[in-house]
Amino acid sequence: MVGVSLSLPHLRNLKTCVTEWEVGTYFVSKKEFQDAVRTFAVHSGRNLKFDKNDKRRVKVICRGKKGSCESQMHCVKIPGEETWQLRRIKGKHTCSREYKLRIMNSDWLGDKLHSRVKKNSNLQLKTIVTRVHEKWNMGVCWSKAYRARGKAIDLVDGSFREQYTRIYDYAHELLRSNKESTVCVTNKPFQGNEADLEALGAVFCPHFERLYICFKGCKDSFFNCRSVIGLDGCFLKGYYGGMLLAAIGRDPNDQMLPIAYAVVEGETKESWNWFLELLIADLGGPRLCKTYTFISDQQKGLLPTMDELLPDVDQRFCVRHLYNNFRKKHPGKKLKELMWRAAKATYENAFIDAMKEIKDIREGAYEYLKNIHAKHWSKHKFTGDQKCDTLVNNMSETFNSTIIIARGKPVVTMCEDIRVYLMERWEANRQKAAILVVILIL
Ligand SMILES: [Zn+2]
């Protein structure tokens, strides 16, 4: 046995040498041998199968020609060390090329798609299927392509869990490269039970709780814009869930201006309280913030927090959201039209008229709307200071839909996607503004 290993003392990388096999070749692990077999199978179209596969040996047989192809390979582990060696090759292939191979699994394909997914994380399944056909003349089903893409995305993003361990590094890097920004991370003590601690490799790690980011560039832009702030939360679709809270302003072009965002465990009074305290500090303190107008969807936990932190501050409720709640009890096209007329009323009598008409149609609907103070939803009661008469929280909705793909990614990748989006957005705005300056000078 020793003689065999001594007579061929070379280690070859079979990834680049898949067309021929040589008895005696060494592999650093079983996985390397299996990957080489898979690559060989795909390139040559041989329908190979791992017939025996355990800690000591791997036997590869060919299933071509309905099992009558007699080609076989045996690879064994060298006792006492982490090395595997190809010991025997039996028979030549008498089979022909096959189009669909089970041996090409999603792990293998995911590994091959790695660089493509890195360039484009929205790689379409159709593209994968076509690419596999063109490159290897091989068929792949949709579900395998889907799994392979998931594996490739995982490879690119790092796993969801791993990214939480790097969150402090990420926060420090943000602060280093964005001076005077605010980045805040909080954690909570280890959440597991005693059984978890007894598990192998368990550590008393604290758990990630919340992350708040407000860039100086966003803050500064806000101070030059209308003092209207939309607040909203949206679900994160990644493995660990959670929510993203965001404060969105409105720029002079009537487009959205993200100010700050935070990853939190859910929309609760505590999380809104934590987010708003940081936001208020960033936007000049409670005295200045009392002069701003906040637009919200009356989220759970937000309204009591607002009353505590900024009592009597100007608040608007998104009328589209109000109507959705109103409609559940009081449906009908006429009521919808009247409610919107009341919301859009720019002087008190117009509002009273619309409300009176609602009362004539349905008393209950009138009572429902009367209980919501008009200063929150009707234009005639809005103050003129904000130079903005918007009735809906559409800036927040736009932001949520802009980051819809990022919301499914691991935490650091998601924050990075948002940061890059913001950076590109500011740059595009700067270029537009530069053209305007040139026109003005001319
Ligand atoms: Zn064969």
Quick rundown:
The protein is an alpha+beta fold.
Describe the structure.
The protein is α+β, with helices and mostly antiparallel strands and 442 residues long. It folds into four domains: 2-90, no CATH class; 106-157; 182-318 and 392-415, 2-Layer Sandwich (Nucleotidyltransferase, domain 5), CATH 3.30.420; 333-390, no CATH class. The protein contains 18 helices and twelve strands. It has helices at residues 2-7, 30-44, 106-119, 125-136, 142-157, 160-165, 167-177, 194-198, 216-223, 269-282, 285-289, 302-309, 319-329, 333-344, 348-361, 363-370, 394-402, 411-441, and strands at 26-27, 48-53, 57-62, 72-77, 84-90, 182-188, 207-214, 226-235, 243-250, 256-264, 293-296, 314-317. A seven-stranded mixed beta sheet has the order 6-7-10-9-8-11-12, with helices on both faces. It has a five-stranded antiparallel beta sheet with strand order 1-5-4-3-2, with helices on one face. Helix 14 packs antiparallel against helix 15 and helix 15 packs antiparallel against helix 16. The model is unreliable at 1-18 (pLDDT under 50). Bound molecules: zinc ion. The site of zinc ion (ZN) has 7 residues, from loops.
Q: Between the first and last Cα atoms, what is the distance in angstroms?
A: 88 Å
How many alpha or pi helices?
A: 18
Given this structure, which CATH class of the largest domain is correct?
Alpha Beta
The largest pleated sheet is described as: 7 strands, mixed
Bound molecules: zinc ion
Strand content: 15-25%
Morphology: elongated
Secondary structure: helix percent = 40-55%
Structural class: alpha+beta
Q: Do you know the CATH topology of the largest domain?
A: Nucleotidyltransferase, domain 5
Strand order of the largest sheet: 6-7-10-9-8-11-12
Rg, Å, rounded: 31 Å
What is the number of beta strands? 12
Give the count of structural domains: 4
Mean pLDDT metric: 87
> Low-confidence parts lasting 5 or more residues at pLDDT below 50?
1-18
Tell me which CATH architecture of the largest domain applies here.
2-Layer Sandwich
The H-and-E topology, N to C, reads as HEHEEEEHHHHHEHEHEEEHHEHEHHHHHH
